[in-house]
């Protein structure tokens, strides 16, 4: 038979109300708390979370919706959010949209039904445009993907500056024809493309751009065709780690040597970035800080619902390796 609060109270020698106060973090004496926790351990009691949700609007659960778990960046974001939430005494309910706006809408409704305490979202491009039309009864924080003006708290990296930094670095290494492959399904890809264009034009160079969905197979085919053409650039910037990996595969397939035939620089410092030869020059994103700050923003918004909106723009770190070696 299932163990209930009354069973725990009987073994602890206290009232059921005292058990509830201990389990709910209420004020009780140390002696009572010790008795109850020992009784919980002895009985194996587990709270009925569904019933608790019905009694309270607080679930101590943070929802997390990311755009594409295939992208290693979002795996890292998920780990960072979960770690920060655990340290704050909260749980994480996770959903992956696969860059599908319909799935995203379904998961947003799901989070409302589950009465999460707050929600962190890395939205699709279409979802980002429609979020302002929703009415949420919990705090929502945008992570990684946000426009310049939002009605939610925002935790992002400065994508414009990061892309400009990669262009400036490649140019300083002697590269004149610097191409760029950017994601077509997210605001981050668009922002990095804008930063790239600004930097290229400021140097008096000509932008050479392709935009694609963030799919490795499609990207590799497009890059193989580009690398085989007479219009191949001297260097290329990739807006995410999936594209960077595809560029390495395309270079191998077309017989190009990195960086002698084409230099490569990208985003996200994946473990393999320093293991391949030559290592890949990348913008290292502050993933752990983004996760920590997103959880902090949710908690602060719970405690202060009417506080001014917060927009935190973090800086990436340009990690220079052999893939962009000076010509």
Automatic annotation (TrEMBL):
CDD domains: HTH_LacI (cd01392). One of its GO terms (molecular function) is transcription cis-regulatory region binding. Pfam families: LacI (PF00356), Peripla_BP_3 (PF13377). The keyword Repeat does not apply. InterPro entries: HTH_LacI (IPR000843), LacI/GalR-like_sensor (IPR046335), Lambda_DNA-bd_dom_sf (IPR010982), Peripla_BP_I (IPR028082). It comes from the Bacteria. Residues 3-56 form the HTH lacI-type domain. Keywords: DNA-binding, Transcription, Transcription regulation. The keyword Transmembrane does not apply. This is Transcriptional regulator, LacI family. It comes from Methylophaga sulfidovorans.
